[in-house]
UniProtKB/TrEMBL annotation:
Key words, A-Z: Membrane, Protein transport, Transmembrane, Transmembrane helix, Transport
Descriptive protein name: Translocating chain-associated membrane protein 1-like 1
Region (Disordered): 167-215
Annotated gene: tram1l1_2
Gene Ontology process terms (BP): protein insertion into ER membrane; SRP-dependent cotranslational protein targeting to membrane, translocation
Basic residues bias locations: 204-215
Source taxonomy: Eukaryota, Metazoa, Ecdysozoa, Arthropoda, Chelicerata
Organism: Aceria tosichella (wheat curl mite)
Length: 215
């Protein structure tokens, strides 16, 4: 009953995209996430991996619940007093859950179920404990955890870039005042030589008047 409830939850995520009017750039990630949940829960239910499936799903939901709590605190805490600490705790919890899921899967499928005497597929009894099935399930779980970690790392890098861009935009730009450059006598003489004779004479008289006034 628990896994049927989980399967119905992941299936309902598809029509929820329409009712929530999710943006197109976010839709692909959410569809991939929901599809991954449907495949994982269906495989656990069909292969009769109830105990290890409940443990893995519980670890995953603990990490997700802490992440959503951090988002709620970030929305309510406008002064940004405690949201950074909760986000840091959620990120650490996410990494620990991924590592714990891999360790639990290796101990279960590589060591625990390999010691069982009944390693023959029996559909009537719900026994799929063979080496091929164990290795396939273990590889799938490791691939899912790697996908979650890759998505987590890319999201963290994107947030860091956005924060750096915002901090760079908020910095006040320093205004550099340009001081007027005084022309030397040689440059003034060159400018006078380029002018016609009438303009040269008028410019010389103006300079002599300004010099006399300054005295």
């Amino acid at each position: 009953f628990y896994f049927i409830f989980q399967l119905s939850y992941w299936v309902h995520c598809y029509p929820e995209l329409y009712f929530q009017k999710v943006k197109r750039d976010e839709m692909s990630d959410r569809i991939q996430y929901a599809t991954l949940g449907v495949i994982a829960v269906s495989a656990i239910y069909l292969l009769n991996l109830n105990r290890v499936g409940i443990c893995l799903l519980t670890l995953h939901y603990l990490s997700e619940s802490l992440y959503h709590v951090a988002r709620i605190v970030e929305y309510l805490d406008k002064d940004d007093n405690g949201s950074k600490g909760i986000h840091l705790a959620a990120s650490g919890m996410f990494v620990l859950v991924r590592l714990g899921s891999i360790i639990l899967s290796v101990l279960t499928f590589w060591y625990g179920l390999a010691l069982s005497d009944n390693q023959v597929i029996n559909i009537a009894e719900g026994n799929f404990n063979t080496q091929a099935v164990r290795l396939g399930v273990l590889a799938s779980i490791c691939a899912i955890q790697a996908y979650f970690m890759w998505h987590f790392i890319t999201e963290q890098l994107q947030q860091m870039r956005e924060q750096n861009a915002l901090s760079a935009a908020s910095r006040p730009k320093s205004k550099i005042e340009k001081k007027p450059v005084k022309k030397t006598k040689k440059e003034e003489k060159r400018e006078d030589d380029d002018l016609p004779e009438v303009d040269q004479n008028t410019k010389k008289t103006l300079r002599s008047r300004t010099a006399a006034k300054a005295k």
